[in-house]
Amino acid sequence: MVTQGQGLCQKPQGIIRAATFTRVADLLNFVGVAYEHIPDLDEAPGTFGLKVPRAFAERMRRADPDDPLLRQVLPRRAEHQSIAGYSEDPVADRSAERVPGLLVKYAGRALVVTTGACAIHCRYCFRRHFQYPSLGTHLEAILAAIAADQSLNEVILSGGDPLMLSDDRLAELIGRLSQIRQLKRLRIHSRVPVVWPERLNNRLAQILSGGRLTGILVIHANHPHELSETVCATLRDWRTLGLTLLNQSVLLKGVNDQIATLAELSERLFACGVLPYYLHALDRVAGSAHFAVEDTQAQSLIAGLRARLPGYLVPRLVREHPRAPAKQPFI
After folding, report:
1. Is 232 annotated to bind ligand?
2. Amino acid 137: pLDDT
3. Any binding-site annotation on 272?
């Protein structure tokens, strides 16, 4: 369950908020879609509720119940079905937790779950059942665990979404991480630059690019319509700061499971100064099975992209297997 305002290194006032739709009726009214056009609509999604920034909703096609952006965020009754092979912890986050909020899965890298807050609730989220309230305030324990492991040279800030933390909270956290000598790189994984680009202010840019650690910003866009001109202009500006900009997508049925869509996404990303990095097979989290794309189709899509695009625009098709030493490529 994503619980806003809880997590590491923060008080409730340490979370920032955007103008957001939280009621299904309000979102559907805004995009001009009638209830009867979505027969499996879940009007009361419960603990993992609707959350969609207005800035993101403005990019949805009006009166289109099959809009790929709407499909990513609209709750469906299918989420309540129990499907074999789908679980609440599909990538074994819990077994990788060294202290609350610190995950170590791969050599040299540590992931800090900074907060349970997100700017948007994506219905396929692999941490939609993560026990964020159990994080408490464990900053000192996290920093001590990282400093004690000399094999670690890169820290990933994740969540929730780390860019939901205020500038002051991020500056505090990054400043403390910068004091750990063996660290070389700081990676930020965030959906915020895509769904709420106004968050990327000048002070945040200075915090992420002005420190000792080499900065990498990994954004999350699944469809070319997510990359508005405002988003692209912001990302291009941030590229000039010396940050490496990468994108991770999730392959989603009814959203981006077409060669033309994925090719357009890669081209659009590059125009924004971002390199396609990973195309993830869906993590089998409970409630997401209706987004699944068959492996054979996924492989066919990548083959089609390779025939159509230069190699640097073809993302790596991967799946995360619990307790594997790295993301596993398909082909």
Report:
1. no
2. 67
3. no
